[in-house]
């Protein structure tokens, strides 16, 4: 499926206002409600729209500390990579895990209540991950800009 300009406008609006009604969406993109609904269903069926979620304010839920953790593994075999990836997905404080090109093998985005909480997460979970040879943690002082909207 190739996206046309209407599909792109639908995706742009839904990324910023996921709870918008079909009537409001159809008005915003200048399309009839039935045609708009069919397009959204098609975008969902084709996998362009993966999920609908509520984005929480980290401060309101007490997770105001963001830490980026660079992980270097002891090896690059499939077994080492698979064991690490399987284990890291079980840590609820890890929001993202990326396999990297560069000096680190993985980059994690971790949320914590504060530095003491991160120390506990590090001790209880991160330090016990299989295959880890080295870790470096970088604390975010302030979030300047953050979005979940992809350019379409």
UniProtKB/TrEMBL annotation:
Record InterPro entries: ArsR-like_HTH, AsnC-type_HTH_dom, Dimeric_a/b-barrel, Tscrpt_reg_AsnC-like, Tscrpt_reg_AsnC/Lrp_C, Tscrpt_reg_HTH_AsnC-type_CS, WH-like_DNA-bd_sf, WH_DNA-bd_sf
Name recorded for this polypeptide: AsnC family transcriptional regulator
Family matches, as PROSITE patterns: HTH_ASNC_1, HTH_ASNC_2
Stretches assigned to the HTH asnC-type domain: 3-64
A GO MF label: sequence-specific DNA binding
GO BP of this protein: regulation of DNA-templated transcription; response to amino acid
PANTHER family: LEUCINE-RESPONSIVE REGULATORY PROTEIN, TRANSCRIPTIONAL REGULATOR AZLB
Entries under Gene3D superfamilies matching the protein: 3.30.70.920, Winged helix-like DNA-binding domain superfamily/Winged helix DNA-binding domain (1.10.10.10)
Keywords of the record: DNA-binding, Transcription, Transcription regulation
Cellular-component GO terms for this entry: cytosol
């Amino acid at each position: 499926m190739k996206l046309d300009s209407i599909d792109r406008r639908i995706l742009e609006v839904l990324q910023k206002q996921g709870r918008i009604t079909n009537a409001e969406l159809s008005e915003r993109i200048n399309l009839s409600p039935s045609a708009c609904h069919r397009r959204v269903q098609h975008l969902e069926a084709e996998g362009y729209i993966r999920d609908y979620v509520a984005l929480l304010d980290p401060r309101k839920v007490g997770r105001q500390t963001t830490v980026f953790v660079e992980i270097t593994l002891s090896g690059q075999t499939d077994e080492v990579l698979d064991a690490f990836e399987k284990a890291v997905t079980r840590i609820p404080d890890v929001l993202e895990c990326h396999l990297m090109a560069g000096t680190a093998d993985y980059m994690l985005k971790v949320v914590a209540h504060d530095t003491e909480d991160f120390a506990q997460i590090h001790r209880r979970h991160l330090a016990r991950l299989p295959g880890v040879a080295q870790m470096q943690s970088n604390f975010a002082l302030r979030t300047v800009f953050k979005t979940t909207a992809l350019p379409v």
